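ESCALATION

Customer reports they have been waiting on this structure for their group meeting. Please prioritize. Original submission:
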Amino acid sequence: MRRRTVTSGGLEELLEAATTAERAAAADQAAAPAPAAAPPAARQRERLQNEFTFELPRGYVDDEGTVHRTGSMRLATARDELRPQIDLRVKENPAYLSVVLLSQVITSLGTITDIHAGVVERMYATDVAFLQDFYRRINSEGHTHAAVTCPHCHNPFEVDLSGGRLGES
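Update from on-call: job pushed to the front of the queue and completed.
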């Protein structure tokens, strides 16, 4: 391997050349047109929606008798889907997997923010089935809309399956 010796005179020349090259690069960059900023609507479309609201068909009744129908669910992470696999309740009863999984991704239910497996256990079966379908839709398709066809006129249209008042979903 060959070593290169730099004398003080040569060092000054190298520093001068480097400074000149940096100035030229900065001037070229200043002369180049700046990339156009994305319009606000485009920037909003780039953001991933990671939380979705829903309305339960029946509603969860808490210990005081209050019915909670509206809630929100976030997208599941790999950890959310792996964690139930080591849960002893799931090992003993594989059907319990959906209860544990839903309890991890539901962020709120009415005024309740501490959602745990016990809350999901006490839900009506129709609400759990709704939440399982809702989970599948938002995590595999990324939205809660479904394309349907009118049985009378055969025109296609889209509906939001996240719930709502009767006749709206």
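Sent to customer with the following note: Residues 164-169 have pLDDT under 50 and may be disordered.
Escalation resolved.
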